[in-house]
Write a structure and sequence with these properties.
The complex is a heterotrimer of chains A (about 550), B (about 400) and C (about 325). By secondary structure, chain A is mainly alpha-helical. In chain A, about 70% of the residues lie in helices and about 0% in strands. Chain A folds into three domains: about 5-210, no CATH class; about 235-530, ABC transporter involved in vitamin B12 uptake, BtuC (Orthogonal Bundle), CATH 1.10.3470; about 535-560, no CATH class. Chain C has helices at about 1-30, 40-60, 65-90, 100-120, 160-185, 185-195, 200-205, 210-235, 240-255, 260-280, 290-305, and strands at about 140, 155, 160, 235. The chains are: A mainly alpha (about 550), B alpha/beta (about 400), C mainly alpha (about 325).
């Protein structure tokens, strides 16, 4: 981005540190004062010495800048030899400036006039500008290889705990934001911190830590997800969104097995989720259910999963021999066949199994013995209402799916899939049962989707054909592509982003699909391997990148050791 | 070694999260600027998409009723607000809207939905939250009288009411008109498989055959289709004298036009779902002679109705009140009348919900569509219907009477 | 017998639409091995282009002489869309793994649908409607041009729609022009060469990039004509009309033999007739138009399993 010519940098680099510290200091001081005269804008920012959400974020940015500056040249240089502070401050200053500029613009636009921007905000803005200028005057440094940075075990675990807690409360905070612009600014803040951390090498260090301590990381992640309902203070509004995110993530993970691991492009996957949901609805005690058999829920889940897996086998058997592009269209066709069949089986054009376009509404809540999912239970002093109950159940399901995914990925079957993905003919020549493995991928993905669908039917209260249109398959595929095909974390990230953002950015509601289409196009153009790239995929997409190949080799070696 | 660190991580996280979860809760009471408490009347209707003409009319009529109630201080100490959510005419979206309403503690009542198929999904959600729901447009009988409404009616949802009459009345009304007044003995039926269309055609066919007529063909269409040639080709050889359609105008308009162009030059008759000016736009120049029934008398035939239309025009809404504006106005006022009783002396909305349900069952007043009162099933006591015919490319009322 | 001929004509009319769109699919696939998922949207934009021409230039008059101008308007809209699509979305991905262009195509398809839905009558981010165009969020009536629309022609027990005659006639004309283009012009020969072997064609001095643009434009021209035909047949258009039509057209292209232009035409007609016959002759509850689309997809699966090279394709199809 914008940089000064080297001559100016050399001349003024001595001033960089004091200027930077002054800038960060001003940022912090300004944030403690009042930013906006109007208290309705951007969550209350009008009281001095009582920082609102955005002001706390600005203070955080300032403090991080101070730490990095001191690490660059000052008391914290022992930290500085590991961290690439110059690039880190560079990025941090960029995003802080964007943040402050957006704050000023938003206050002006929403409160009506520059007069509403108080001195505190101007001071912070000046601080951000100074920081930006200072960052451009810093000299680059050599850093040591972070793979060698080994800290005592408890420090690493503490780091994992801190990051997870930050994720937990960050998410809870993000979900609680009612004002869309505050949410956007929060995203800017998070992006700034993340990019600064990445550039400074923090992410890379965390990457090495996580390679060494995989088990703790996963446990921490699940503990965090489990504790999430406890942070809601009894309010169920966000849990509804959260449990929808979980269903979506579970389906995406199932699709990840089909697309990400086995490389089979399935554009009709939503039909599997739908078939599970319809079986779950038909076998429930809804007044509109068309079959008289009402088995207990575990049996229903099993029946739904097996039925869907059979459907997957029926779909897969004739079509898995065709090539990738054709498979995509055929599976799309199957998705449509499923939807149209559900639409038509209403007594007029087929036996009345699904009530056609009206669907099966009024599905009652699950209940295991005396534990009814619709009631509010109290756990550790916090009321857990209906959606929170489903959330916890879905979390268990998601854990199961991830376990299945991981096991398959690291087994012979997984390696077979990799071979098929890379070169099918060679794999067949080597003795890999190509057709059998493809069918297994399809059936497994279908089985898992069936399970998720059965729970979804109860959570959604009604099942209609409109919920299982092609666009949903496209969203699932996009989640995987966006997040990173074949990775667990990537797909979870992709699913959360794609399901959560539309809920929170309500003012974009009309443009949601437009932006989605644009996102897909841009993603495939600039980062086809996704946000959290599986290393193998990255190599596939960037075949000529030698540096990348060396780095990947090193990472794999480290993981095997740890 | 790994085991210990696992336990460490788990324990520290649990403690941290509990500590921090203790701080943070949200309270929800809102106060309006003049010190009054706020109660919200929700609106669920298709505000976008093909049926938006009808949905926006519903929304604005409710807004007009609430505006007038606030101006007259009808409920002292309370200010009413309207919150409209789009159900897009789809059951799934409607259910999400209903779930959102159910989660808000100051929603006192909801006017909605337009489509019977959507109401099937929203009824259970609002019933669980004990929020009253008054529909200005749902005509499917099973919504108030249960799945076996013809033989063993039972009221499934105590919170659901409607100000319009049902297809159990509308279908036979149309059958009688076609058989007795228009003299058609052979009619073909087509419907779009949704709850409304299917129910309407079923009620029509039963009465028509009971009167002595014959249904020459019973076909269905897929509402996503825009080319109806194959259906028309199947119906035409049976030589019907009219076609009865159960569904809405986005499909029936093109159907009417394609029908006449293909040589099946008979009138198309439908229910209240096709009674909209957009039907004539879509059906084109050959639509003269098409018929529709709609609930109630024409809005401008009653003095109170004329005043409503004048007020509506004066309020400056972009879209017209459309077919259900008057019914939505009455539905909103029914809720307001119930709230007059239940909100008196109350401090918040959520605790008065049961009282609102009871009060709504007992309301009785003269609305702009006639008498507004509900029977034990939640159905409207008024059973007036009108037949409209397209004349000179405009809907004109032909016959208004109460169904006995 | 009458019903059979009636449904045959219905089928041919429907199939002509599929055929016109299928050519676009097959030409692009033959050269790039890319399924241009967004081709259905090119068809839809052609229809909207024709509508706009009619509303803006002629204020919606239905005189017959406006029809050629409408077709030109449709062609301009479609070709612009297709060429821009190729240039900015597909060209950078020429050497990427197969997944990338397919997902890009899905993205473009969704993007174009929404763009038309939201911004047909308004300049983006404003509510400025300079030409007073109707809102695309619900279905829009299409002008009923004289002579090609109107009362159907009755021959015995068979009703022949005027629009059907127009559509089938358009197919015949376009097919003839297409045949002449591919076999008797330099560009056409170039297209044949590039679809056989891209690298050798480049060595022979053919500007491969330009040929690819011509291929996209060619498909777009036919899709535009199909758009006008559909608008005339249904008397309305909406932003969703491209999705299913595009899918069926792809089925038609596969049925006829992907990469083979004559195959696309034949495949389209065969698919249309099969759909019409299935609607009429499948008895009981599974007959009728609600199951029409299901049969099309079942046919696709059967073709791919039993005869993947399609009706007119050669045996050498790389299935892996």
């Amino acid at each position: 981005m914008i940089t000064f010519p080297p001559a100016i940098v050399a001349k003024h680099s001595a001033k960089a540190l004091p200027m930077g510290l002054a800038g960060a200091g001003l940022l912090v001081i300004g944030s403690l004062l009042s930013w906006s005269y109007d208290s309705q804008v951007l969550g209350d920012l009008s009281i001095a010495f009582n920082p609102g959400g955005l002001q706390i974020m600005a203070i955080a940015l300032g403090l991080l800048a101070i730490i990095l500056l001191l690490a660059h040249k000052g008391p914290l240089t022992s930290l500085g030899q590991w961290a690439d502070t110059e690039r880190g401050i560079h990025a941090l200053a960029d995003w802080t400036l964007i943040f402050m500029a957006m704050v000023v613009v938003t206050i002006t636009a929403e409160a009506g006039g520059l007069i509403n921007v108080q001195p505190g905000c101007w001071i912070s803005l000046v601080g951000a500008v100074l920081l930006f200028l200072a960052s451009r005057l810093l000299l680059a440094k050599k850093t040591r290889d972070l793979a060698e940075a080994v800290l005592p075990g408890w420090v690493e675990i503490l780091a994992i705990v801190v990051i997870m807690a930050a994720l937990l409360f960050g998410t809870a905070y993000a979900l609680s934001l009612a004002d869309a612009m505050v949410f956007v600014l929060f995203l800017v803040f998070v992006t700034g911190m993340a990019i600064a951390g990445t550039r400074a090498g923090l992410m890379s260090w965390l990457g090495h830590v996580s390679l060494r301590r995989k088990r703790e990381l996963i446990l921490a992640a699940f503990a965090v997800a489990f504790c999430f309902p406890l942070t809601q203070g009894g309010s169920d509004a966000n849990m509804s969104i959260a449990s929808q995110v979980l269903v979506f993530a579970a389906a995406a993970m199932g699709l990840n097995i089909v697309v990400g691991l086995a490389g089979l492009l399935d554009l009709g996957y939503i039909a599997f989720l739908g078939s599970g949901a319809y079986v779950g609805a038909t076998l429930s005690s809804s007044g509109f259910a068309t079959i008289g058999w009402k088995p207990p829920f575990f049996v229903v889940v099993l029946v739904a999963a097996c039925f869907t897996a059979t459907l997957g086998l029926i779909i897969g058997a004739p079509t898995l021999r065709v090539s990738g592009d054709y498979l995509a269209i055929v599976t799309l066709g199957f998705g449509e066949i499923f939807r149209l069949t559900m639409f038509n089986l209403d007594g007029n054009n087929g036996p009345d199994l699904t009530h056609g376009p009206n669907g099966i509404p009024a599905i009652p809540d699950l209940s295991f013995g005396s534990f009814n999912f619709g009631d509010t239970h109290v756990l550790l002093g916090v009321p857990i209402a209906r959606f929170s109950n489903y959330y916890l159940l879905l979390l268990l399901l998601l854990a199961f799916i991830i376990l299945v995914f991981h096991r398959l990925n690291t087994s012979r079957i997984g390696r077979g899939w990799v071979a098929i993905r890379e070169d099918e003919k060679a794999a067949e020549a080597m003795g890999v049962n190509v057709f059998g493995l493809k069918l297994l991928a399809f059936a497994t993905g279908a089985f898992l989707a069936g399970m998720a669908g059965a729970i979804k039917a109860h959570q959604d209260v009604s099942v209609t054909p409109d919920q299982y249109i092609f666009l949903e398959s496209a969203f699932l595929l996009a989640a995987i592509v966006l997040g990173g095909m074949g990775t667990i974390v990537g797909v979870l990230v992709g699913a959360v982003i794609l399901k959560l953002l539309p809920e929170k950015l309500r003012f974009f509601a009309d443009y949601r699909l437009l932006l989605f289409g644009l996102l897909l196009v841009l993603m495939m153009r600039f980062r086809p391997e996704g946000l959290v790239a599986s290393r193998r995929r990255q190599l596939e997409f960037h075949e000529e990148d030698e540096e990348l190949a060396v780095r990947v080799e090193g990472d794999i070696a480290e993981e095997v050791q740890g | 070694m790994h085991q210990r660190s696992v336990v460490q991580v788990g324990a520290s996280l649990l403690i941290v999260s509990l500590a921090l979860s203790a701080c943070g809760s949200r309270s929800d009471t809102k106060t309006a600027t003049n010190g009054n408490k706020t109660a919200v009347i929700g609106v669920m209707a298709p505000l976008s998409g093909d049926l938006s003409a009808l949905g926006l009319g519903i929304q604005h009529s409710v807004e007009l009723a609430v505006k007038q109630a606030n101006a007259n201080n009808t409920i002292p100490g309370w200010t009413l607000k309207v919150e409209a959510k789009d159900d897009e005419g789809k059951p799934d979206v409607g259910k999400n809207a209903a779930t959102a309403f159910a989660g808000e503690s100051n929603v006192a009542g909801v006017v909605g939905n337009l489509n019977s198929s959507v109401a099937q999904s929203t009824q259970p959600v609002l019933a669980t939250a004990k929020i009253v729901q008054v529909s200005p447009a749902n005509t499917n009988p099973s919504l108030t009288q249960g799945a076996n409404f013809a033989t063993a009616p039972v009221r499934t949802y105590a919170t659901y009411f409607r100000t319009c009459t049902t297809d159990a009345v509308q279908g036979p009304f149309a059958a009688r008109y076609l058989f007795q007044k228009a003299g058609f003995k052979k009619v073909a039926t087509i419907h779009d498989k949704k709850a409304y269309g299917q129910g309407l055609v079923a009620a029509f066919s039963k009465e028509f055959t009971a009167l002595g007529g014959t249904i020459t063909a019973a076909e269905t269409i897929n509402p996503d289709e825009s080319n109806y040639q194959s259906v028309i080709s199947k119906v035409k050889p049976t030589a019907p004298q009219a076609v009865y359609y159960g569904g809405e105008y986005p499909q029936s308009g093109p159907l009417s036009q394609q029908m006449k162009a293909a040589g099946l030059n008979v009138p198309l008759m439908g229910g209240d779902g096709i009674y909209d000016p957009k039907f004539i736009v879509l059906a084109g120049t050959t639509s003269n002679g098409d018929l529709a029934t709609s609930v109630g008398a024409p809005t401008d035939s009653l003095p109170a109705g004329k005043k409503f239309l004048a007020d509506y025009a004066a309020a400056g809404y972009k879209e017209p009140a459309a077919a259900y504006g008057a019914y939505s106005y009455d539905a909103a006022n029914a809720i307001i009348n119930a709230l007059k009783v239940s909100l008196k002396g109350a401090t918040d909305v959520a605790s008065t919900r049961q009282a609102t349900i009871d009060a709504l069952g007992k309301v009785s007043f003269d609305g702009i569509t006639g008498k507004v009162a509900f029977d034990k099933y939640g159905d409207s006591v008024s059973r007036v219907l009108t037949v409209y015919k397209v004349t000179d490319l405009k809907w004109a009322p032909v016959l208004t009477e109460a169904f006995k | 017998m009458d019903t059979f001929i009636q449904q045959l004509i219905n089928g041919l009319s429907l199939g002509s639409l599929y055929a016109l769109i299928a050519v676009g699919y097959t030409v692009v696939y033959g050269i790039l091995q890319l399924i241009n998922f967004a081709h259905g949207e090119v068809f839809m934009i052609g229809a909207f282009g024709a509508l706009s021409t009619s509303l803006v230039l002629f204020r919606g008059t239905t005189a017959l002489w406006t029809l050629p101008v409408m077709i030109i308007g449709a062609v301009i809209a479609s070709v612009t869309t297709a060429v821009l699509m190729e240039r900015f979305a597909y060209r950078p991905l020429r050497h990427a793994p197969r997944l990338a262009p397919l997902i890009t195509a899905i993205g473009i398809s969704v993007f174009l649908q929404e763009l038309v839905r939201l911004n047909y009558n308004q300049v983006p981010f404003t509510s400025w409607n300079p030409f007073d165009l109707p809102d695309a969020k619900s279905i829009i009536p299409f002008p009923a041009i004289d002579v090609v629309t109107g009362p159907a022609i009755q021959i015995g027990g068979v009703t022949i729609q005027r629009e059907a005659i127009f559509t089938i006639g358009a197919l015949i004309v376009c097919s003839a022009l297409l045949w002449w283009f591919i076999n008797h012009t330099k560009m056409g020969h170039g297209m044949q060469a590039v679809s056989q072997d891209q690298d050798t064609a480049r060595l022979m001095g053919i500007n491969v990039d330009r040929i690819i643009v011509v291929a996209f434009a060619l498909g777009a021209v036919l899709a535009a004509v199909a758009g006008v035909a559909q608008g005339l047949q249904n008397h309305n258009i909406n932003f969703r009309m491209g999705f299913l039509a595009g899918l069926k057209a792809f089925v038609a292209a596969v049925l006829g033999g992907i990469g083979n232009v004559a195959g696309a035409v034949v495949g389209g007609l065969v698919l249309g007739v099969i759909e019409a016959m299935a609607t009429q002759y499948i008895p009981g509850q599974f007959g009728g138009s609600p199951w029409k689309d299901v049969w099309a997809f079942v046919l696709l699966i059967l073709v791919l399993v039993f005869r993947p090279q399609g009706l007119l394709g050669e045996k050498a199809v790389d299935r892996a």
